[in-house]
């Protein structure tokens, strides 16, 4: 008996179609389409792929996308000036600065400069704080996508033991806040965690986001657990793989996400939802 697969491509396509229908209705009513500004600094190949996929999703949703592809030599001041210009532009609803940024640019400073109402990544301390205080506004896309996938299982998370492996600002920390909001009992594991295997063995829900191929061993998974793999790692043979040892884990789990085609497409779907929400909040 293998786990059921959570098909992120399918769920993402449904969400983008829903967003697209709302945009079409808005445009038919004489309002402008939502607009997302996507900023890419430097030539990181993985970032270039993500940004291309975000722009394609904008087309599908009927958004206007504004693209800023800037050289790695861009100064922090120049980037902050661009962000301030986009903050003030009434035709722009969402601002996404793709991470990682080149080392000479302070990413935290850039994120804090984005108008929180246009922060469609949900990374600004204002949006993060709202999530922590149980009043989410723009939610970080990847963890929000994880929650939508968990909802699709139909399993009630209240009181469940959830283990998050990884404590990054983009995945682990906000995923822990989301799971807490859903009233799970949450354990966050990181590089200094002792007895990681035992913690995972006790989990009803495992969310892995460490960026290390096959880091979570399949035989750590409790029979019947739900496994959400946020990792997207490229192996030397060119193939993509997640943070969880998929083939073994899928024999034990009740539900599992594949890589690719799991959480990845969900991040983009939630970005489209956030951009529509930002547009509606800014231009009711
Ligand atoms: N880099 C990796 N994931 C993300 C994301 O969700 N948003 C941005 N802006 N950069 C990223």
Automatic annotation (TrEMBL):
Protein residues bound to NADP(+): 166-168, 232
E.C. code: 1.5.1.5, 3.5.4.9
Domain (Tetrahydrofolate dehydrogenase/cyclohydrolase catalytic) ranges: 6-121
One of the GO BP terms on file: purine nucleotide biosynthetic process
InterPro entries: Aminoacid_DH-like_N_sf, NAD(P)-bd_dom_sf, THF_DH/CycHdrlase, THF_DH/CycHdrlase_cat_dom, THF_DH/CycHdrlase_CS, THF_DH/CycHdrlase_NAD-bd_dom
Cell membrane found in the keyword field: no
Keywords, comma-separated and alphabetical: Amino-acid biosynthesis, Histidine biosynthesis, Hydrolase, Methionine biosynthesis, Multifunctional enzyme, NADP, One-carbon metabolism, Oxidoreductase, Purine biosynthesis
GO molecular function: methenyltetrahydrofolate cyclohydrolase activity; methylenetetrahydrofolate dehydrogenase (NADP+) activity
Signal peptide: none
Chain ranges of the Tetrahydrofolate dehydrogenase/cyclohydrolase NAD(P)-binding domain: 140-279
CDD domains named in the record: NAD_bind_m-THF_DH_Cyclohyd
GO cellular component: cytosol
Annotated catalysed reactions: (6R)-5,10-methenyltetrahydrofolate + H2O = (6R)-10-formyltetrahydrofolate + H(+); (6R)-5,10-methylene-5,6,7,8-tetrahydrofolate + NADP(+) = (6R)-5,10-methenyltetrahydrofolate + NADPH
Highest taxon of the lineage: Bacteria
Pathway, per record: One-carbon metabolism; tetrahydrofolate interconversion
Assembly, per entry: Homodimer.
Function: Catalyzes the oxidation of 5,10-methylenetetrahydrofolate to 5,10-methenyltetrahydrofolate and then the hydrolysis of 5,10-methenyltetrahydrofolate to 10-formyltetrahydrofolate.
Family note: Belongs to the tetrahydrofolate dehydrogenase/cyclohydrolase family.
Annotated NCBIfam families: PRK10792.1, PRK14186.1
Name under which the protein is recorded: Bifunctional protein FolD
Gene designation: folD
